[in-house]
Amino acid sequence: MDRVVRRVPASRLPQMLGDWRAGEGSLARRLADALEKAVYDGRLPLDAQLPAERLLADELGLARGTVAASYQILRAERLIVTRTGSGSTVALPPRLHDRLAPWASDRGEAGRNGAPLDLTVAEPAAPYDELLQAVREAADALPAALLEDAPGAGRTSALHTAVAGLHNAQGLTTDDGHLLLTSGADAALSLLSAAYLRPNSRVVLDSPTYPGALAVFRGAGARLVSQPLAPTGWDIPALDRTLTTARPSLTYLVADFHNPTGLLMGEEDRTDLTRRLRSHDTLVVFDETMRDLDLREDPTPPPRVVARAGDRHVVYVGSLSKSLWPGLRVGWIRAHPDVVRRLAALPLAAALAPSPLDRLVATRLLEHRQPVLDRRRAQLARRRDHLAARLSALSWCRFEVPQGGLSLWLELLDTGSRRLVDLAATRGLALTPGFRFSPDGALDRYLRLPFTLPPEAIDTAVDRLTEAHAALKDGH
Q1: Residues 335, 337: Cα–Cα separation, whole Å
Q2: Which long-range contacts (CB under 8 A, 24 or more apart) does 137-144 make?
Q3: DSSP string computed for 354-389
Q4: Among residues 117, 175, 176, 338, which is most buried (max CB within 10 A)?
Q5: Measured between alpha carbons, how far is 317 from 180 in angstroms, rounded to an integer?
Q6: Spatial distance between the Cα atoms of 469 and 458, rounded to a whole number of angstroms
Q7: Positions of E strands within 32-74
């Protein structure tokens, strides 16, 4: 696909930049900061060609040397690239090409100079280079795709084949008939809820668990039955007893690098759970959105709680949101073909299917999946260990080091999370209290702490959390 060069006229820049002269520093520095901000918030698109120094200087009423100095600052920070005969074009610095945390979490400031930090989001940023390549390739393929009839929820595509290949590579025999594509994991849960739940149907789930699942099941009018997790994992006999007593229509479990605790169900527990599930008439939904985020030294795909041949009671839900990028609204349901046909026949299925463009982009991005995962696992493991090291020095909390995922589940030993979260907010640190992850509003003595931010931002976050705790003890 040919790259289109967009030229930004000098006459448009004053409107784009606003009142850029306000602030501190030299005029060149302030102009560079304003141009940088315009890039980051989308007013100046990437690859746009900036006006020549002389033209911009005339438009802004500056000496040409001031604009030249401003452009030099941006070149040093690699926000613009200047080529002889081609002028200066807007670029994204290499340090931002592989950000692990979304830009909104720290705006690139990492908490410096009192800048706010947002730890309420546990999700990765886009893999910039790979995603951009996938989007361009998808755009090339889009004209041919548009000539076809719009695929319904049950129609197969190249993405079906790619996702089936992921399951087959991990020993779970899967073909197109086992898969239904959805616009994310929440969409998959919504579709399953529409098919299997009625008002007041019971749903058994871990406590804590993924808040998105709580919202979906509550929205369906279900009665939630919590099965508490121990700090070290699952109590399978206790879960068995809960299933016997509650007789739920649906059971929702996150066995692989559990959200929010990062726990991994052991092989013996999986074998025991497989055996016990055979005596229960409940649809068991295994959420596998965290499955790729294995942070152990030797990452290997965990064994699944595998359904028996012909079993219509076990369903796996996956997506690209946690492993690659949540902005790509692609997920799936892997189930018995009869279950897939039942779900695809629902009117809601078409509305919850991914768009044709998302399917094309996802198919091509999956070609880069392994190198992206390898890079991200290494980054996450280092940041998890950095956060754990900082927290281990605090006497007022405790935790288990997560084996995978994106966050650490912190137990507070001397206070609840509500007041601590409020005090942290006054210090520029946004946190999610533990009760948000509870089916019944419990778990107030816990916090979820994502470890996606860079180490310097993690240090600032722990410092602010420590200050908030000290203020709590001082009665402030």
Answers
A1: 6
A2: 137/1, 137/360, 137/364, 138/357, 138/360, 138/361, 138/363, 138/364, 139/1, 140/1, 141/360, 142/356, 142/357, 142/360
A3: PPHHHHHHHHHHGGGHHHHHHHHHHHHHHHHHHHHH
A4: 117
A5: 10
A6: 16
A7: 48-49
